[in-house]
Write a structure and sequence with these properties.
3 strands, about 35% helix, about 150 residues, alpha+beta, 6 helices
């Protein structure tokens, strides 16, 4: 017998049977495995981001980066959710790997792209990200959240 349940943000995952799968909540969060010392699978994180309509042009590159920096992977869905709430439906999020052309350096970049940009967009991004700064500071990888002032594709 298989049981289906929709988890809320505060619910603990419960496995019923061998192949029970976790469902994501409507808000787009993974159940908070990180709070229980368990890092979510990168594949699950990418599925949640896809359900949240976060665009990931090079999924394999992002997946590799998140595998190398698994403590960062559990932060991406709540950050995207916060940005979606901040910018509503008039913005699209794009998760990409940035490669510095001058030195051997790469990091994850989350771009906020809109059809019309306000002067305060960078301040709005900074305010939305303030609650995540302490956790991001101790993560093994880098995440830059910004805009490149391009139109959403």
């Amino acid at each position: 017998m298989r049981a289906k349940a929709q988890l809320g943000k505060s619910d603990l995952p419960i496995n019923i049977g061998r192949k029970a799968r976790r469902k994501t909540s409507r808000a787009g969060y993974l159940p908070s495995d990180a709070d229980h010392g368990k890092i979510p699978d990168v594949k699950d994180v990418l599925e949640v981001l896809k359900a949240m309509h976060v665009m990931i042009p090079e999924t394999s590159e992002v997946s590799e980066y998140l595998l190398a920096h698994s403590d960062l992977s559990c932060l991406i869905p709540p950050i995207c959710c916060k940005l979606i709430k901040t910018f509503h439906e008039d913005a699209r999020l794009f998760l990409e790997i940035y490669r510095d052309p001058e030195i051997h350096d790469e990091y994850l970049t989350l771009y906020v792209r809109k059809n019309v940009y306000e002067e305060q967009i960078l301040n709005c991004i900074d305010e939305a990200m303030a609650e995540f700064e302490p956790t991001l500071g101790s993560a093994s990888g880098w995440l830059l959240v910004t805009t490149d002032f391009l139109l959403p594709k």
